[in-house]
Task: inverse folding
């Protein structure tokens, strides 16, 4: 059955999607220019179903942010603080290891660890942190440090990116999250995160991590001052690296939250924009397996709808989140396993609990009792 699209410019794109052909830069622009959200979502849902059937993934994870002290002062960020700021914090190693064990200890399969660019903490300190976590929680996957942090550790330790990645890997880093990519366009970066590494370096570090055998995620921050061209350029650049390395596992489009940032005059994204970005990323990133609707960023309500607009992953229990909450998010800090199951089932999908590598996690009855 050929659907009736309101926007006829999408018909040739449907033909490509149906044939499994790669979409071009211009197709990306056409998609962003169109308001026919249902048509865009229809195509993205088709691709999701082709790749994953009815399966939607979630995981039981915990976020850990060891410090919010950051030398970068990015305008987009409400999380980072200077060391002098009395409200800033830096956890001790003992505190980090203790915090990691709080909450749903027996069921957590992943610690997601990111923090500010601290002017004094050393690479050895971070290695010690990872070793301590591995020793205490040997079954938990450590998804740690963005490309931006790797670059900072390299600068501080006077080692190459590759050497830093090797040291962290030896200490227990199992994979890397996708943050810090923001938007690769240099003119936009100059305004939203001028002290951060440039897009080329972010992509280069991702390539090195992949060459070293680590899988990573990737992200795109939208809804600030970027144009549609910048978003399509960002997606195409990620797709090009993925063609070379195959190391990206999941893409997470991140909506800009302006509250408490120097860019707070910018209005928040809308549900329409959030769903459009999920769907267009599913259509453009034909070589990345998973698209995540990060419920903390989208709200659980919109993340649930995103499962029918191309997303096959809703992230995890999270437990305690700082980056979005500092930027004004009012959604809950953590969801329980049963909440995630309900969101997924109601969207007509089949929930599959996964570990970070997308292996199915089978729970025993006693584990279910703890998680219920
Ligand atoms: O790196 C910072 C962004 C990222 C703001 O890899 C902001 O599985 C919006 O990367 N408004 C952190 N965004 C979140 C992130 C992430 C989340 C969930 C899963 C994974 C994964 C990665 O959030 C930062 C930055 O790009 N960010 N400040 C803000 N005010």
Result:
């Amino acid at each position: 059955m050929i659907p009736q699209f309101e926007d006829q410019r999408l018909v040739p794109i449907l033909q490509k999607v149906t044939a499994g052909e790669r979409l071009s830069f211009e197709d990306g622009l056409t998609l962003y220019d169109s308001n026919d959200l249902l048509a865009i979502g229809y195509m993205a849902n088709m691709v999701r179903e082709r790749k994953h059937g009815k399966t939607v993934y979630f995981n039981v994870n915990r976020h850990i942010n060891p410090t919010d002290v950051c030398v970068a002062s990015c305008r987009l960020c409400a999380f980072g603080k200077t060391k002098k700021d009395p409200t800033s914090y830096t956890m001790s190693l003992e505190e980090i290891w203790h915090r990691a064990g709080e909450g749903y200890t027996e069921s957590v399969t992943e610690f997601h660890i990111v923090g500010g660019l601290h002017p004094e903490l050393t690479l050895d300190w971070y290695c010690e942190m990872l070793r301590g976590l591995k020793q205490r929680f040997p079954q938990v996957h450590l998804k740690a440090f963005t490309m931006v942090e790797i670059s900072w550790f390299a600068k501080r330790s006077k080692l190459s990116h590759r050497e830093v990645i090797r040291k962290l890997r030896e200490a227990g880093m199992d994979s890397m999250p996708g943050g810090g990519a923001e938007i690769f366009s240099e003119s936009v970066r100059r305004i939203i995160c001028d002290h951060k590494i440039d897009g080329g370096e972010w992509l280069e570090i991702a390539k090195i991590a992949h060459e070293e055998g680590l899988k990573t995620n990737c992200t795109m921050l939208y809804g600030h001052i970027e144009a549609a061209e910048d978003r399509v350029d960002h997606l195409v650049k990620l797709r090009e690296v993925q063609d070379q390395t195959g190391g990206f596992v999941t893409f997470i489009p991140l909506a800009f939250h302006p509250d408490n940032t120097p860019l707070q005059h910018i209005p928040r994204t809308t549900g329409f924009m959030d769903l459009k970005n999920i769907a267009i990323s599913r259509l453009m990133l034909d070589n990345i397996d998973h698209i995540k609707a990060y419920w903390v960023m989208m709200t659980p309500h919109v993340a649930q709808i995103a499962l029918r607009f191309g997303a096959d992953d809703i992230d995890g229990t999270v437990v305690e989140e700082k980056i979005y909450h500092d930027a004004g998010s009012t959604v809950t800090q953590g969801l329980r396993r049963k909440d995630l199951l309900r969101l997924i089932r109601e969207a007509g999908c089949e929930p599959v609990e996964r570990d970070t590598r997308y292996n199915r996690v089978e729970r025993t009855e006693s584990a279910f009792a703890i998680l219920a």
Remarks:
- The first helix runs from residue 11 to 19.
- Residues 76-79, 146, 177-180, 182, 217, 219, 221, 252, 254, 256-257, 261, 294, 315, 323, 327 surround V47 (CB under 6 Å).
